[in-house]
């Protein structure tokens, strides 16, 4: 049946042409982008998988950079440790030559060569850095990013290659020591304090007590107890026996045992009639009590318990007064300690990396403020240039006296551990005995440097192997992604030509179908 209202042939031809055009558009996209899956619309699952893999590939490229940098860092350390080993071998040859019976001049010449090689080793160790990392200094390990591990659940974790540092520094150990007046960070004050003499209380170290009241008769005795704990130089201890006072003044580092024995010596020297003095020392004078026993033998001994006394000199900042404590300017080191004694307690600040004297002053203020010492106000005046100027801590009494110990002001240089080759500083061939000792020492130093070179060599081999694997992995993943999303250009080209022919035929078919209604006009002529 023919109809002028519905052209079925044209609709079929149009549908066919639309399908051809759609396929043609797809093929043209493949050819222009080179991908058969270029977005999520083309194939959502393949696009998602390929996108995740592509991000992993980019991450692995970054990991390759990390591995290359790590390999270079370790390579510098390995080369440096190998060079250090060679210099130590040269030093060993010199030391071996010093085992002979040599005169002082020859030994001095050998020592000069040893010292020169020691300096060369130190220079190499200090210069053996790459991008700021020196694996021949310190002890902390270095981690090199090696891989990204993706779990079946989609979780991702980083994997590292750990490279241990090997300390080959030549510095000798330095013990902690009190700072000198010329040192950076030296803590001092030009101000003075008020000194008061106060009686020790029952809870204080050195407090003296007895149960004896008045004189004691022939055959009786009296115990005097000295409370355990740390006492201070200048503390005074008094006994009145035989009608006389005997006072002992504590010296630096004295304990209560020293006090008890000192009083016994004084009383014995007084030759008190009918009196025998014995001392029972404290097992641990820091916590246990010492005892002085006074025994009467042959007659009565006069004893005045009211004169039994232990006193201490107390330094105070008088109400309304201020003590300025200065911290000398200059470069301080990590681990240096700084102490201020105020309110009966020591407050010690330990310097951190890159601290200046301003940081020290602020740190001490924070510690003292946290203790809430009664009647004390603490202020800090920063150094304008902490590398040369002093910072100041002001301790002001407001509302009452505040205990302070100027003797407790202290600052200490931190101890410095010896480097891994620190024993090299003591190598000497000045005498035959020194040369023998040096021979044993150089063997130990060689073992240290050889172990370091071996460790770095193994680490560099591991890093380079991982780098090769990561590059192979990148290539494999890139190939896999390409297999999933890349277009087959040869097939696309052939398909394009076929679709273009189909498109032309479809257009022609549609043209024919659209002309069919015109033939119906012939029926009405």
Structure characterization notes:
Helix content is 42%, strand content 22%. The protein has 525 residues and is of the alpha+beta class. α1 runs antiparallel to α7, α2 runs antiparallel to α3 (104-127) and α2 (44-97) packs antiparallel against α6 (432-485).
Observed structural traits:
alpha+beta; 22% strand; 7 helices; 525 residues; 8-stranded antiparallel sheet; 42% helix; 4-stranded antiparallel sheet
Number of helices: 7
- Rounded radius of gyration (Å): 46 Å
Strand content: 15-25%
How helix-rich are the residues, as a percent range? Answer: 40-55%
The chain-level structural class is: alpha+beta
Low-confidence stretches: none
Query: How many distinct beta strands?
Result: 18
